[in-house]
Amino acid sequence: MLNQINGLHHVTSIASGAQENNAFFTKALGLRRVKKTVNFDAPDVYHLYYGDELGTPGTVMTYFPFHNARRGRSGTGEVATTAFTVPRGALPFWEKRLADHGVGGLESATRLGENRLMFRGPDGDGFALIEGEDSRTPWATDDVPQDVALRGFHSADMRLTPRDADASAELLRFMGYEQGDTQGGTTRFHVPGGNAANIIDITRTEAPRADQGAGSVHHIAFSVDNRDKQLEVRKALLDTGYQVTPVIDRDYFWAIYFRTPGGVLFEVATNEPGFDRDEDTAHLGEALKLPSQHEHLRAKLEQLLEPITD
């Protein structure tokens, strides 16, 4: 069993428009845009990062906004819900705020002993806010003060067939997660002593398979402290029979990728070097930052990419 994984590092999804996506996360949810860059493999598409002040691992939601991308279809073999922690007593504030911003899918519930508010992003993305104790310092604004602001990720909920759920549970246990309580078809897994984003839920369902598109989670990334620990994880996964990519430099972290038995794409990302490697902390996410291999395309990309007004 591995002991290098801390919990979630980031979650990456697909959007149909950059401006709408940016407004949702920075205005409605009150997160900070910590990086404005491009997709390494499709540089005519943004890669936008939102999180706390520094983009601390475990707080960062990222997006590939493919212009006018078709809407994805929810189902099995995907991360169905990405959940953030908010302080206890904050859900009434958020229910009103999200309603005022025209956010759809608002629904309150209690699951596994926690109060939650479910809602939908601009492309039908599944989100939840969950009340809990969380000492992380949030990014606060005049509209979203510190006593109600999002602290970072609480969990990710994978929706899987029973067979894939069993195999994925075995993988999570190998990755250092311990199995916890079950309610209905959902079973909780957590990393003891991990970061504050150390929960994965698996929900069993016989629904049809998901079809990825706008509103779908592209992949979830797990945090390790450094490259040495990442290489230890990579070797262990390869020895277990998983097909794992070589280490890839993503400028703000190093990454490896592999598919789970249920088809969800997992990444293991380092906490180093961080989002302040090429921008002053006070100005994170303001300028368009390009990977070195795409810098020669700057003039063209600045004409092609959808303007984002803050």
UniProtKB/TrEMBL annotation:
<dbReference type="Pfam" id="PF00903">
    <property type="entry name" value="Glyoxalase"/>
</dbReference>
<protein>
    <submittedName>
        <fullName>VOC family protein</fullName>
    </submittedName>
</protein>
<dbReference type="InterPro" id="IPR004360">
    <property type="entry name" value="Glyas_Fos-R_dOase_dom"/>
</dbReference>
<feature type="domain" description="VOC">
    <location>
        <begin position="152"/>
        <end position="271"/>
    </location>
</feature>
<dbReference type="InterPro" id="IPR037523">
    <property type="entry name" value="VOC_core"/>
</dbReference>
<dbReference type="InterPro" id="IPR029068">
    <property type="entry name" value="Glyas_Bleomycin-R_OHBP_Dase"/>
</dbReference>
<feature type="domain" description="VOC">
    <location>
        <begin position="7"/>
        <end position="132"/>
    </location>
</feature>
<dbReference type="InterPro" id="IPR052537">
    <property type="entry name" value="Extradiol_RC_dioxygenase"/>
</dbReference>
